Structure formats: structure tokens, C-alpha cells
Amino acid sequence: MTTWQATDLYNAQLELEKESTSLGIARYEKIRNQRSEAETGPGRKLVMESIGATAAAIQAFIAEADTGKPGRRHAALKYIRHLDAHALAYLTALSCVNALAQDKAKAVAVAIGLGEEVANEINFRLLREKHPGLHKVVQEQLKKSTSARHSTAVMRHVTAKAEPENRLVLSKKDALLVGMKLIELFIQATGLVELVHTREGDHKTPLLIRGNQKIIDWLTKAHESAALFQPVLLPMVVPPRPWTTPRDGGYLTDIGGRVDLVRTRNRAYKRELALVDMPLVYQAVNAIQATPWKINRPVLEVMRALWDAGGNVAGLPDRELLELPARPALLEADPDYYKEHHADEFKAWKRARAQVYEENARSVSNRLSAAQKIALAEKFAEYPAIYFPHNLDFRGRAYPLPPILNPQGDDIAKGLLHFAEGVPLGEDGGFWLAVHVANCFGVDKVSFAERVAWVREHEEQILDSALDPLDGQRFWVDADSPFCALAACFEWLGYTINGAEHVSHLPIALDGSCNGLQNFSAMLRDAVGGSATNLIPQEKPADIYTRVRDVAQAKLKARAEAGDPIAIRLDGRLTRDIVKQPVMTLPYGVTKNGMRGQVLGKLKPLGLGEDAWEVAGYLADLLWECIGEVVI
To answer: Could you report the per-residue pLDDT of 130-143, keeping only the tens digit for each?
Structure first.
């Protein structure tokens, strides 16, 4: 094992901060290569700054055509006349800025693509006007989409289904005419791009669209600067700089620019904050970030073994993609016949295939996240202590700056970390350790005495989990928080051997109950809310989310019995999970409409169809009413 000197650790930290910058540059370039130019920071800046001038040019073009002067009207007029000029300018800017990143962007292809986007805009407006409920539902569902191409494809499909007769389909010729006119107006308004022919030997190339040299140089420098300011922040191996002003804490060097104490873009607020005397705030954040942690090696070894074996256990994602449902033989042989005469089977197959695609897409990010945490844990396992510099959000909540592996992470991250400095459990430590063990296994809705009794009852399986976590009974694998449970099992083994003298490094987690409402109930001395959020002593913990669900369910049942059609559809299907987010976010200012969006996502598995938006609004109104009854 390496023996570290203070100077060695300091130098190691400086190298880690250089590595953070290098990793940030590599990540930025990778993401940039996966995106269109207009989706990058510098590209977005160009798009947004060119919209105003381009919209003015479009409006002037339309106004000139409307003066009544004799002469032939441009073919693009009938398509763009009734669309918002700023929306057209945005679409045009996207197409032109994306062309900047291409070595040889053919103007004809860019123009046709832009013309088709204009047709999409016309069709999407038609869907919004004729089918507002359907439009809202689709837009809500697409909020989680990370691909503009996917979102456009979904909207085109929905529009084609809803308005097969009235939707606009442009020919290539018309799309070219519309697109080229908009590109010409963009060039006239901004000068960012130009249309050119170049020569390759004796041949003249097709008409190309490209940026002028000035804008190309600007983009290059902007991307270089943006990459430097997006480091991959890592844990530290020496204590972070203490905060004494809103700008001087955290990392040793100025990686990515100095980090602010409060995460906000409001410059006036930052200036005001610098003038405020707040020693207790600095003291609190400094105490959190000066706490030394280290990697829990036994948990890491088990996690690595399971990961190498393929994952898909104890909350680790499967390292392999799910197989897509096999294509039906008849669909392969005669697609048209199968779609017509086996429509239900075809829809079911497509639905199953879409679910697998969605699950595989989700698992990619989960796999990457798990792999990064394990890799970072192995990287920092050799250090005697690691630290997590912190800052605050606008509410004053403290968060670690390293985003991947930290004590506020998921079960994998928390299971990999424990305190570097241990403390003997002492007289009461065994009791609280038992409570923590039970909590990790999901036994947390009963009294403390019952939790301790549960641990005693299952002590054999708990000790087996610690002694043989991979080849034993694997009792820990089915816990609510498997890797935190495994860490607790290891600690319980130490306690059974050493008793009260056992030196524990394990964080014992204690959580508030719906913190926002809990704080309001405390400040207002609200006995009803205080009981619901566990501020008043009681044998078993209260669960405000379940209380609200029960009140809402009772109302739904009564309305259903009275014949309310939406209540009939929802009766008996309301879960704690549907209720939790609206209740939790009410103290932070969520509106009824905000609740509607939260509820809509949770209702998706119920398959409510086109009127899901209406149902979500109905349920949001009901929950708003019920929360007011539970927390007076």
C-alpha cells in the first residue's frame, strides 16, 4: 500500500486538476462530433443572434410582395406568408449554421431540407389548431427526448395519422424554392454564410454553402474556449480550499473558471452576495467539504466482480443490450398482407419493439454511469482520503461539485463510499446501525424497535451476505438499496465480532420527511402537517405521500360511484409514486399546471390515450385539493 506524504498528495491533486481539464476537452469534442453545429454552445449563440435580422428580412420580403406592384410573385410566398417570421428565421438559422460545420455542404440539399422543415412547421401548426389535446400530450412526451430528429419524426407521424388529407407535402422542387429563398434572405441579413462554386481540377463543383473565413475562425476559437470551461470535475485528494468569499473555495486551481459559492447566473445577485456577512454559511459548507471520505474496498471488489460477470444484478444495469422481438415470418414474406390482415399483431409487435428500443436507449446511459463510478472508485481507492468540494443552489442546499461519484449519488455511489475517519460505535451505535441496516433493506415504515427486531431475526442472512456476498445466499441483492445494504452487512459483521468497540466508518443515513412541507409545518406550528411529516413523536413513521394518496383515492371512489367518467378510469389505479412528486414540490412553488406535467409522466403506463392531458389536469386539481386537506 502506498504511503502518501502531504507534498505528494498536493502534487497529485494538481495533476488531477489538469486531468479534469483534459477529460473535459475530450468529452466536449466527443459530444460535439455527435451533435449538429447548431446544438453546440457557439452554434446556438450564432443561431440566436441571427434570428432578429433574418426575421426582419423575411417580413420585408413579404411586405414588398404585398405592396400591389405588378410582377411575378416568388413561389415561396404562399408557403411562408402565414407562418411566424421568427419561427422561419429560427429554422433557417439552424440549417445555415449546421452547414458551417460541413466541409462541402451542397446548397441544394440544405435548401430542400429547409423547405421540408417549413412544411413540417405548417403541419405541426395544423395539428396544434385541429387537435390541441393530442398536440399537448405528444409535446409532453417529447420533453424527455434528447434527439431533435426523433422528435420531428414523431410529430410527422402523429400529424400524418391525424390529418392525412390536409397536411402539406412539398415536392422536391417546391421545397428547393422555399429553402433557397430563405437562405438568400439569411445571407442578406447576416452575412454569416455565402454561396460559392469551387473548382476541383477542370470541374466546377455544385453550389456550396459555407461560412466566411471570419466566422470560421470565430467558431474555432469559441469551441476551444468552451472545451476549456467544461472540465470533468473529480474528487480531491487534499482538503478543498475553504470558502471565505463567494468566489474563493473548492479546487486548488482555476479549472474551468472559478466556481461560485451559489449556482446562479444572476450577476447582480452575485455582486450583492459578496457584500453580505455570512460566516455560518461558509462554516457549514466548509465543514461538509472538509469531511474526508474513502473508497469502501470490500463493496468495490464485489461490485467489480458482478460487473465483470455481466451486471444485471443488485441494481447494476445489464452490460448487454436486450434482443429485439423477432420479425414475424409472415411480415417478412408479405408485409402488406400481414399489416392489413394481422393489424393487431403487427401493432403489438411494433409496440414491443419500441419498448425494447426505449429500454436499450435508457440502459446505455445507466451502463455508462455505472462504469464511470466503478472506474473512479478504482482510481481513488489507493488514496487515504478523498474530498468533495461543495457549493450551494439558489435555495441554500449544498451539493458536491464532482457529479459522477459523490455521497449524494445513487445506491452504487453511496455504497462505494464511507468515512475515512472511523469512530467506535459505543453504547448506542449498535442500535442505530441496526436501524440503518433495516432501512437499507426497505424495512423503514415500522418503529425503531421493530427494525432492530427485524435485524436480529435475519441476522444469519445478514452475516452470510458479509461473509460470502457472491456465492452465499445473496440476501443483500434483493434489498431496496443493495450496495448500501451490503456495506451495512459488512459493518454488522464487524459489530458482532467487536461489539461496542467496533470502529465504524459507515455513514448512518437519516432523512427528513418531505422536507419542504416539514419546514413549513415547523415554522407554522402546524400539528396536522407536523404529524404527517414526522415532527411529532409517534410509534411508527408517518408517510405523507400515502396519506395524500388515500385521501385522493377516497374522493375518486366517491366520484366514480356517482358516475364521473374520468374518476371511473382512475379509481383503484392511484399509486404513491404518482402522488409523491406533486406533494414534494408544492413547497417549492409548483403550480397546478406544473403538477399536471408531473402527473402526466407517471400516468403513461396506464395507457390513457389521446385524452391523457385532460386526465392529468383532472388529477392535478384533485391532488392540489387533497394536499390542502392533509397539510392544513
So the answer is: 888 888 888 877 77
Crossing angle (nearest 10°) for helices 41-65 and 213-228: 140
E runs forming strands in 168-288 = 193-196, 199-200, 203-204, 208-211
Angle, vertex CA 380, rays to CA 376 and CA 383, nearest 5: 175
CA-closest candidate to residue 117, choices 141, 100, 93, 144: 93
Give dist(CA 312, CA 320) in Å, integer.
9
DSSP helix/strand/coil, 398: strand
Question: What b/e sequence results for 501-538 when a residue is b if at least 16 CB atoms lie within 10 Å of its CB, and e otherwise?
Answer: ebebbbbeeeeebbebbbebbeeeebeebbbbbbbeee
Could you please report the per-residue DSSP string of 98-110? Answer: HHHTSTTEEHHHH
Residue 402 φ/ψ, nearest 5 degrees? -65, 120
CA distance 227 to 462: 48
Q: Which segments of 66-146 does DSSP mark as H helices, in order?
A: 77-80, 85-100, 107-130, 132-142
Quote helix, strand, coil % in the chain, to nearest 5: 60, 5, 30
- Cβ atoms 231, 23 nearer than 8 A: yes
How many helices (H) and strands (E) are present in the chain, helices listed first?
27, 11
Closest-CA residue to 374 (of 322, 314, 415): 415
Question: Per-residue pLDDT tens for 467-489?
Answer: 999 999 999 999 999 999 999 99
For the entire predicted model, the pTM comes to 0.76
Which cell numbers in the block locate residue 64? 414588398
In single-letter form, the type of residue at position 316 comes to L
- Separation between Cα atoms, residue 538 and residue 594, nearest integer Å: 33
